[in-house]
Structures are given as structure tokens and as C-alpha cells.
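Aggregate trends can hide what the representation actually does to any particular protein. The sequence in question and its C-alpha cells are set out directly beneath this paragraph.
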Amino acid sequence: MKLHLNKHETLELEEIEDNAESTRHGRQFNIQVGEDSARLSNLVNAAVRTHFEMPDAGRLSEGGRETVAAADKVRPAIFREQDSQLLRVVYKEIAVRFSDETGRDTQKKILEKYGLAIRRKSNFDSRQVVVYDPAGDIHAHRVVEISNDLVQLDEIDAASPNFVSEFPREATPTPAVSQWHLHFRAGQGHEPEADVRIRDAWKHTEGSPQVVVAVLDDGVDVEHPNLRDNIVSRPDPSEPRDLVGRDFFISDDEHPEHFDPRPKLFRFPYDRMTGNDIHGTPCAGVAASSGRLGKIFGASPKSKILPVKVFHADDLASESRVAEAILYAAHFADILSCSWSGPRSSLIEAALTRAAAGSAGLRRGNLGTPVFCATGNGYANQVAYPAASPNAIAVGATTDQASIAGYSNAGPEVWVSAPSSGGTDGIMTTDVSYPNRGFNTGLHSAGGADGFHTNSFGGTSSATPLVAGVAALMLSVGPDIDLATIREILRDTSDRIGTGYSGTPPHSEEYGFGRVNAGAAVDAVLRHVGTM
């Protein structure tokens, strides 16, 4: 089935048939696609319970038979995106972004024509809504067909079925012992050209509390000793419940859990990515760990972190909520760091476009917000989405041997690369501090017996917040530089390690314009603003 991304681009969706059966707990979906069947079946059943009106069987009582009967009617359409093979599930909702020129009366007429009503409005874009058919006639495949019609209208900027989808987090752990990625030290088996020259940048700045890096991920441990002082306080002054960030996986903006961006989901074994919210805390540390405990620093240790939770481990996430999270982050942060990939989405693209273009109401106004995205760990010659978007800055990974990491996806969209795992050592950074949770569950060899840090973080997941942290250093000395200047300075100051460069300026599909050099980037900003 074809999904229209816009008036000109389509995407092929491969339908997955399910052998669903009714049980006393409601409808259970059984996906048959080979070795991945059990995992996909679990994801679909969890998504239906969470997003599509089916109650959790554990909360049903003997008196809940009518609820089970209603839940048994839930029949979503289940697809795989042909290129990425990512799972996308849709039931009744369509997300629509009306153009700035479309008035209220016209919006109402369009929705009435298709029998649609507004279910909820975006808190951060007054022209974006989620709609549905109150009569219940438009569901599953029909949702895709109606969305394809809407996206052709001049009055609409973006429309998409409100899929809940897979968004793989991009970590690739390997054994490691030190923070070689920030500063080279002889005698550890690392190449001198492997690090980002962070101490050259720190001669001028270690970051600024006026610069905020949003980490969009599966949650951040806001009480971690190396993070708590750098967590932004009350990011949204107009919302008193917004104390340290939000959880956009929670669909109800009024629910108390929406205002708690901490890790929440843990399943044994607790040091594995699958089933655990342990990815965002290391990402936050790579960007802006204070170094207060154990001198484990982030790239910009005096900048602030905005935790934006968009995932509950590897459960499927609503694409409209991911887009809403991006808009929220652009309103209250200067830099966005996204260490994950997902399906191509017109909703997410619209949010990225607005962040990059800048507008009144965003934290950086019309300067444009840099959104750093991981190219992906697929060993592929294709950059994953959203890194492949022209509105993102795609970050690849290099190793402690000053070479490209074999897993790092390559392609013309790669802008820069940064040190990560894949060589001898990985990345030492913050870990979830809850007892017996995280990549390090309390082993000295894994980063310390207290479990507060891991020495095994990596992948393009680690490279991405590292570049975001370097950008925070840049904005600390030049807060008014625009997005185009940020991109140009990163391009022109990166070290062209490795081979395969061509063109002017030289570009490699593996390294981008080279491995980021923090010291050279900060020096270039100082020259640009005329203070050096």
C-alpha cells in the first residue's frame, strides 16, 4: 500500500497479516513473519493496549466483560515500511497540519467533508490537530486512504495516519575504560587523531547555563549525581507542572506521568536495551555531564539538559507524539539531540522543518534550531531517518583508532562524525543510577561498583550527543549565530581523518566533512563574532 508523504513523494508499506484470536482478555494479535514473529507480536499487542482503546488485561475485573467485548473490536492495520522494515500500526487517527493561510472556516469544511472531528490539538502548533471519525467508519486501511487524499490539498501542509511505530535507539555497547573521546592520552592504545580536542575548546568555555540541550530519548535520570545540577528547572514557565521536562509517550497531556521524563520501564535482564529505559541517561551524560562525580564529563559540562521522553523502551511510539516532542523541545531548548531512527513521517518532517526554519515562540526565535540525529547502526550505505532529513544534522561514528566505525550508516547526508565505540574502547558516560539497572548493574569492570557510570556506551547514539555538546560550546561563546553558520563551522573545522573525500569542500559519505574538532569549532565561532 502506498503512503503519500506529500504531493510528490510516496512510500511503500508492506501489509502484515495477523492471525488474531479473541481471548477473555481481549483480542490477541499473532504476527507470522519468521524469526521476528514473537517480538513483533508483543509490540503490536502492547501498542493496541496502550494506544488503541484496548485495556490492559491485568487491570480487568470480572465486571469488565463489556470492556473486553469493546476491546475485541479493535482491528488496526499493521504494516512494515519497505525500505527500513520498521513496524507501523494505525487504527483510527490522522494527524493534520493546516497551512498558515487556511482559516478556521475552511478547516472546518475540510474535516466535515470527510466526516472527521478533532480529537486533540497540539500544545505547540495551533494549526496541528489529530482527527478521527466519531462514527467509527474510518479505521485501519481507510485511514491511510483518507490521509493520502488530505495531503494533496493546498490548504494542508502535512497529513499522515497517526501511526504508532518502531523507533530504534542506536546504541552499540563495547568494553571501554576511559574518556579517550574527549582528550587523547598516550599509552592507552588510541590514535592521537581519535578525540575531539575538547580541552582546546575548554580554554575558552566549558559551556553556559544559558544554553540548553534537549535529549529526546527514553528518559533521563534527573537525580544522577553528574546530571542533576545541569537539568533545566521549569523549562515551560507557563506550565507549573513542567518541573524538569516531559514524557510524550504518555498520550494524555493532563496525566501526572506526562510531567515525569525519568526512566520508567525495566525488564530483566536490566543491562540490555530491549525492554529497558537505559539509553537516554548515557546520551545526556555524553552531552553535558557535570563531571562532579569521578570527573566523568560531558562535552559541555556547564550547559543545561532538557529531558524529553518520547519512548518507553522499545514499545511502539505514536508518530504525532514524537513530532509534538520535537516542537516542545524547540520551544524550550537551543539544541536537540536524537539518538534514534524511525520511519519517514510527514508529521516529524513538519516539526523538523519548523525547528530548522525558526519562528517566533521558539527558544532561538528565527535563528533556527540545530537538530542532531544519529545516522544509524545498520552497517548500511543509507542514512536512517530522521538523520536523512535536510532539516537535521546527520552524525556518524568513528573509533578510537581514528577510523570510521563499521556499523555507522553512510550516505551523502552525513554531515560530520564523532568518536564512539567500534575500535578498542567505547565511551565512558553516565548510567542510570537506580540499583541494579542500566548498562552497568554494579560491576567495577563495567564502569564502577556504584553503577553510576558505564564504560560500554557507543554507536551513533553516543556520537550524536557528543556533537550536540560541541554545538553547546559553540553557542556558549556565540549565542546569536544562526543554524546555517553552525552547520558551516562544523563543516569547515572538522578534521578530515580517513579517506574517500571528494568535492569542494571535501566530503566523505562515511565521515561527512570529517571528525568534529571542538577546539577549532569554538575558535571559529569566536572569530565569527569578532572576539578573538
